[in-house]
Design brief:
The chain has 385 residues and is α/β, with parallel strands linked by helices. 40% of the residues lie in helices and 24% in strands. The longest helix has 20 residues. 49% of the residues are buried. The protein binds P-hydroxybenzoic acid.
Length: 385
């Protein structure tokens, strides 16, 4: 008969060679499902290029659908993944409130969480086990405000969704634009549920601003706003629009058509990024059957998020040791499909280039063509603290 100690050792040895589960929470149904699908594409592309095991530890991604902003459901799904499914890592969440709801579970559950989209600066401050491979609104908006000033804009109006990332975007724009000598004449915050943007377009018109800065979560609202901006004649009247790339994601460009040509935005990733790493990413995406005309920031965040998870599994030899895991990727740097990146050891957020892009024609389709690089941008929201 086995001694009790030998049985424990055997069991832990077996656990070592076992499958390591990673829970991924994102919008797989509903109006934001394209972005959850992008999470899946990015993770599958990483596995396609790097295999499905690390040091003999097989890695299994377990997906859970969270279609909208629903903190209670986010918490329940994360809890279930940790307790019932036994995941060693969590990843995902498209929306900020969902990430914030998961944060309090991590230390108790001994689980690192790699944020794959949610972009409010403060998220990483909620737990030492949170890492982020996406972006923050501050990171992408500071360059947008600088571009507006350089374009000669003097009076701006901001319009944002009334929740975390919208407030961050508004504050980042106003602070940077006014430091540059401009004046923000009005700040509009609108409900996340807004679907009719025509009244907003009218208010922008009446404000006397020469430029509008706007942020909504990428998906139905961003396309709705862009259509109202164009349809209400703001573009024709010379009211400039500057935004982060959330308003001009690749899947929306065909729906906007030629009227969007030349529109500027600042962002950390364009599917058109010209580099060997991005070309290899596209090849891996094609190999897994992804629609490469619909590849967005969510796919590259998931690709790099998977890289961090593989590194953490390697560093811990598959053991559930979240502090060792997180410490192992602090300060890590590599060349992502988006360009050079690193994990800031203080904030655990990704430092990356932000590009000024313009919508351009590419054969039958449209791309965000990168025109200029703001190098190695930190999360300005945490950097200024
Ligand atoms: C967020 O909720 O943090 C969020 C969602 C979609 C975006 C940007 C930020 O495009």
């Amino acid at each position: 008969m086995l001694s009790a100690l030998a049985a424990v050792l055997l069991a832990s040895g077996a656990a070592n060679a076992d499958t390591i589960k990673v829970g991924v929470i994102g919008p797989l149904s509903g109006s934001y499902s394209l972005y959850g699908q992008n999470f899946q594409w990015g993770i599958q592309a990483y596995a396609e290029a790097n295999g499905t095991s690390v040091d003999g530890h097989e890695i299994e991604f377990v997906y859970r659908d969270l279609p909208g902003v629903d903190p209670a459901k986010a918490r329940a799904l994360a809890q279930e993944l940790i307790v019932r499914d036994g995941v060693q890592y969590l990843a995902g969440t498209y929306f900020t409130p969902n990430a914030l709801a998961i944060a309090p579970l991590l230390e108790q559950g001994n689980v690192p969480f790699v944020v794959l989209n949610a972009a409010t600066s403060s998220i990483v401050e909620q737990s030492p086990y949170i890492l982020r491979t996406s972006f923050t609104m501050w990171q992408n908006t500071v360059p947008a405000a600088k571009v507006a000033v350089e374009n000669g804009s003097k009076k701006s109006i901001t319009v944002v969704s009334d929740y975390g990332p919208g407030i961050d975007a508004e504050t980042a724009f106003k602070t940077t634009y006014e430091e540059g000598g401009g004046e923000v004449v009005d700040t509009l915050r609108i409900p996340l549920s807004t679907t009719d943007f025509n009244p907003i377009a009218q208010r922008i018109k009446q404000s006397g601003a020469d430029t509008v800065f706007a942020f909504f979560p990428a998906g139905a609202p961003t396309l709705g706003f862009m259509k109202a901006y164009i349809g209400n004649g703001l573009k024709d009247d010379g009211v400039g629009l500057i935004s982060t790339g959330d308003l001009l994601t690749e899947p929306d460009l065909p729906a906007l058509g030629d009227v969007a040509l030349g529109m500027q935005s600042t962002y950390h990733y364009s599917a058109d990024h010209d580099s060997p790493e991005n070309a290899a990413f596209m090849t891996a995406l094609e190999a897994i059957g992804a629609d490469t005309s619909k590849v967005t920031m969510a796919a590259v965040a998931a690709f790099d998020g998977a890289k961090l998870i593989y590194e953490m599994i390697d560093a811990t030899d598959g053991e559930q040791d979240p502090q060792t895991a997180v410490d192992a990727v602090k300060g890590m740097s590599w060349t992502s499909p988006r360009g050079p990146v690193s994990i800031d050891p203080e904030t655990r957020h990704i430092t990356q280039n932000v590009y000024l892009r313009e919508v351009a024609k590419d054969g039958d389709g449209y791309v965000n063509k990168e025109m200029r690089t703001f190098e190695a941008q930190p999360d300005w929201g945490l950097a200024q603290k």
